[in-house]
Design brief:
This protein has 91 residues and is mainly alpha-helical. The chain has 2 helices and 2 strands.
Length: 91
């Protein structure tokens, strides 16, 4: 499995949001029953929210890591995306 990098995860998160949005539109047009439609869209919206908040948390972690590197503070910062470690570039 390829190593996760900050740029890969940021692009992937935006792509996931677009796919989830498109899926919501497709499901809304296919499913006719209102209850099933609402549940499906709520699930997709929840997944989109989770991806967005993880992306924001990753961005903040990467900024903290870069700040620590710039001031020469020892020790690393471990950034994660849904529990998986993400490589933060040092340059």
């Amino acid at each position: 499995m390829p190593e996760l990098t900050l740029d890969n995860v940021k692009v992937g998160a935006v792509a996931a949001l677009v796919v989830l949005g498109l899926l919501a539109l497709v499901i809304a047009s296919i499913i006719r029953k209102l209850t099933a439609k609402v549940v499906a869209i709520a699930l997709l919206a929840t997944a989109g929210y989770a991806v967005w908040t993880q992306r924001n948390a990753l961005q903040e972690c990467a900024e903290r890591a870069k700040d620590r590197i710039e001031i020469g503070e020892p020790g690393g910062v471990i950034c994660t995306f849904f529990g998986r470690s993400v490589t933060v570039p040092t340059a």
